[in-house]
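Page 47, continued from p. 46.
Same chain as before, 415 aa.
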Amino acid sequence: MSDDAPIFHPDAFQLSEREVELTDKVRKLGSETFAARADSYDAAAKFPAANYADLRESGLLGICIPTIYGGLGASYRAYALCAAEMGRYCGATALTWNMHVSSCLWTGELSDSLKMTVKERAQHEHLREGHYRRIISEGAVYSQPFSEVRDTETDGDPFKTTAMRVGENWQVTGRKIFASLSGHADYYGVLCTTVSADSDERSRRNTLYIAVPSHAAGVNVVGDWDPLGMRGTVSRTLVMDEVIVSAEEALMPMGLYYQAALRWPHMFLTLTPTYVGIAQAAMDFTVKYLRGELPGYGDAKHRRSAVKSSNVASMQIQLEQTKAVWFQAISEAQVDPSREQILRAYAVQYTVMENANELCQLAIRTCGGRSILKNLPLERFYRDSRCGSLMLPWTADACIERIGYDLLYGPSDRD
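Result:
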């Protein structure tokens, strides 16, 4: 097991035995395997395929699949804690793993708490069993391309990607940008607006969440991938041109995504664990570097400075603040949260994404010029962490706007 202490100490945060077991498993895999590969994946902007082979072998592709289907049965919080540990060692692997695991969370714990008719629930049970079987038995990887080029910044607008009934199947057409795992996932969990030949009416209420097979005719991945950070996610553009998809590939009953987005808003917080892990990694690096404890870099100590000592203290304070409010919000995830809990979720999204990068900035300033060299991981932590505030649907700016509006306006207020 790694010498690294858990990000969230089991006793201090009152973790369950299962949460401890799973986070220990991920921390061991991350520290002993993923950390050593992270720089090469980043340098080449290459997908972490070897890490995914390890995730298959360890059973972690099925972390949120219920045990009755052969998965590990992790809860929302247990998964989030594990993703934070993984992000500590390879941000790109943790972020893409989130895209895969979210397909299991959304179809599992989240869907179970939403309203469905008896017929819908029976059909959903039948369909998700098939998706889970692929993951457990075949090691299938699911992605979750969400982002699209938008004409406006109104995220209540219907998705431009559409699904039209063709006999017993769906015909899916559209483009998803920043599609993580593009070219590497076996199935793309696509959110699309259902349309008909007889009507131009489109509504987000009619959103279909469906798994588009990567090998289907009309599916293409286009464009280059050479970004600032999170380079190993390989988030190129996914193009679907009249792709025929079986109705059996539905991941949720028609319209259930719309209900989920309104009633289970914490579903959009699952990007944050990666950045909690990066913040912890920056702290770990800074302390080890200043104490002369980085393996392979000599034992010279760089701590004889009051400024460095003060900076390290500031980093630790900011990290503890971030961890505390994040853990609270993750623990509150449920159907129909209170207004206070929703506001806290927005605040946590903003806090984690901004603080992770601020911690990395201060770490570089504290460690000095050598820390910007690519043979040390701190500059990668900095670049990866800068990407968090841009992540849809809850960008940092969107969170600020929503918090301010919700505090100043009631449900019926108009100016």
